[in-house]
Design goal:
The structure is a single chain. The chain is an alpha/beta fold. It contains eleven helices and ten strands. Helix 3 runs parallel beside helix 4 and helix 6 packs across helix 7. The termini are far apart. The relative contact order is 0.11.
Length: 289
């Protein structure tokens, strides 16, 4: 095992993971701009989109395409260049590389070759939506895009419905209505949700409420823009407290099954979320007038 130190002299090059704005170009950091100017090559998900970004910030660095359809070809090329000492920045069209975008394969290959991987902080849709959702921000579970159909989608929804953490899902405007209905079928219409769209852009908006309320809203309004769905976790089940007579009866039942009285009292207290002393006093009539 060897610790990777990001900022030391190295005979090899380096892979910089550079987040790009998710809408508002002012969210580009000074460090991101300087890094893109300093590297030898920028590996971009879509060179046309990234070219516009580079032109906006007067960045002359050469571009090369790196997307989900050419990873097998590009990874060996990029690794060879970095082994020769070149510094390469990887970017996606928006947000951080690897998060619902290409990236993870190149990162794994660089790590295997002991090439330093340096991540830059920056814009990301998931956290931006989460902190403004009004739903508990932690713990949270990031899922990304759901499978579009079939057994994989059904299984994913079933699993997510059971999670107690807040869940983050990405969705397009073309499928968001169907996804809301699928969520109702699996999570129940009372589950709270926030839909964030067009984050950081002029038409940024948040829709907050229950799944049933959101479904009603979209009966009269068409979804627009890319969406981040922040879904509240599964509510903690509240056990209906037993009456005093039921508690005493539960203790007697356990004693009849062979438990000693104190053990039975402790068991009933635990099952009902009560202190042992409360059940003990109740069972023995202590404190009654």
């Amino acid at each position: 095992m060897k610790e990777q130190r990001s900022f030391v002299d190295n005979s090899k090059g380096c892979l910089f993971l550079v987040p790009t704005p998710i809408g508002n170009l002012e969210d580009m950091t000074f460090r991101a701009v300087n890094t893109l100017k300093d590297v030898d090559l920028v590996a971009a998900e879509d060179t046309r989109n990234t070219k516009n970004l580079l032109n906006h910030f007067d960045i002359p660095t050469e571009l090369i395409s790196f997307h989900e359809h050419n990873t097998a070809q590009r990874i060996p090329e990029l690794i060879e260049k970095m082994n020769q000492g070149l510094k390469i920045a990887q970017v996606s069209d928006a947000g951080a590389p690897s998060i619902s975008d290409p990236g993870k394969e190149l990162v794994k290959a660089a790590i295997k070759e002991e090439i330093p991987v340096v991540p830059l902080p920056g814009a990301t849709a998931s956290i931006t939506a989460l902190i403004a959702s009004g739903i508990s921000p932690q713990p949270f579970y990031f899922y990304g895009f759901l499978p579009r159909k079939g057994k994989e989608r059904t299984q994913a929804l079933n699993n997510l419905a059971k999670r107690e953490e807040t869940t983050i899902v990405y969705e397009s405007p073309y499928r968001v209505k169907k996804t809301i209905q699928d969520l109702i079928d699996n999570f129940g219409g009372d589950r709270q949700i926030t839909l964030a769209r067009e984050l950081t852009k002029i038409h940024e908006a948040f829709l907050r409420g229950s799944l049933d309320q959101v479904a009603s809203y979209y009966e009269e309004n068409d979804p627009k823009g890319e969406y981040v769905l922040i879904i509240a976790g599964k509510p903690e089940e509240v056990t209906q407290a037993e009456s005093d007579d039921d508690l005493v009866g539960s203790v007697d039942k356990l004693i009849a099954q062979g438990l000693k009285p104190n053990k039975a009292i402790k068991e009933v207290a635990t099952q009902n979320g009560l202190k042992k002393q409360e059940v003990y006093n109740l069972y023995h009539g202590i404190g009654e007038e």
